[in-house]
Amino acid sequence: MQIRATTDQDFDRYVDTVHAAFARIREDRDEDGGGVFWAAFELDRGLLAIAPDGRPVGTAGAYSFELTLPGEAVTPVSGVTAVGVLPSHRRQGILTAMMRRQLADLRARGEFVSVLLASEATIYGRFGYGPATYTQRLTVPRHRGALVEPRAGAAAGGSVELLRRADCVDLLEQVYDRYRRAQPGALSRPHRWWALRAGQPPIAPAPRYIALHRDADGVPDGYACYSLGDDEVLMVDETVAADDAVFTALARYLLGHDLVREVVFRHFPPEHPLRWQLADFNAGQLVNHTDWLSVRLLDVPRALTARGWSGDGELVLDVSDPFLGEHGRHLLTVRDGKAECVPTDREPDLWLDIRDLGSLYLGGTAPTTLVRAGHIRAHRPEAVELADRLFRTSRPPHCLHWF
């Protein structure tokens, strides 16, 4: 079996193999070469598995994104995608070979973090990816959707404007880009995605209404992308907001929509206060809580020094990487929100797998949780308490982007 990099000449074979691996029927691109989820594939970052008879039987790819880390640091990452093997060739080691080759290629590019969206939760842990952000749906019956006025603080100034998605793509791109730079766990949406209309709404060209929020000076600072189905359910694809007050203003608009039976907020952020703003707390039902973005660290010291931190302290982390056959012991020293990470032979405070360190990395999973789950072994209880303080973020990580 040969694993090789793809070129532009492989485009059709690559796309056809991806579709066949997932039993999907290939759609036609529009006249501008876009309008389908695979329009933004980067063929200089793809891999093909070639059988001895010359047929492609597996694919793996990556997108070039930026990831916002705790502390609002932004770093380049690979968004792993299009990983699949034809049903006729599964359980022959092809997936493992592609993932091993891909990780080597990502390191050769100088990247220290890789991310993906796992279609099946059990697949990617063995390759070192750990769930790092989470998402859920909030469902609110329209007749129970009244919001109370805030008892403390002020509501957002400004206004909400109704637009069609096709008429405001440039504004959506600008608002999303400002939002993602301040939101831990958020991925960039490169301009070519918007230009090619790849992915899901509001990037994809499916008809959608846009509720655009402008601040008191008329500057766009949030939007909600939505459509109404035949079942009278208002489905909100995503809500992007500069702060909680803007989110509330958009929610008030959506929950006040006429001829709607129910409003469903997809990708509702963890720990968001909107349920507390409902006059009837129990009207908001959280469902489909699931992992979203998984993180894989390729260079532990670089990754740990790139993000911002809470509090001060020292931890010795003993990190194993079974898939790559690597092991390292690292002294993490945090002062004033910045970290140093160097090799050490000191006694470890925490023993953990690279997958678990990926889950901790963005602050969406507490070290205590993984200690209690039996994933992380602690030398002493105080070390776990310190790890909780250091890894904690003031804003839970959240990722809206689908790839």
UniProtKB/TrEMBL annotation:
Active-site positions on this chain: Y124 (proton donor), F403 (proton acceptor)
PROSITE patterns found in the cross-reference section: GNAT
Entry coiled-coil feature ranges: none
Keyword annotations: Acyltransferase, Transferase
UniProt GO molecular function: aminoglycoside N-acetyltransferase activity
Subunit structure: Homohexamer; trimer of dimers.
Protein's recorded name: Putative acetyltransferase
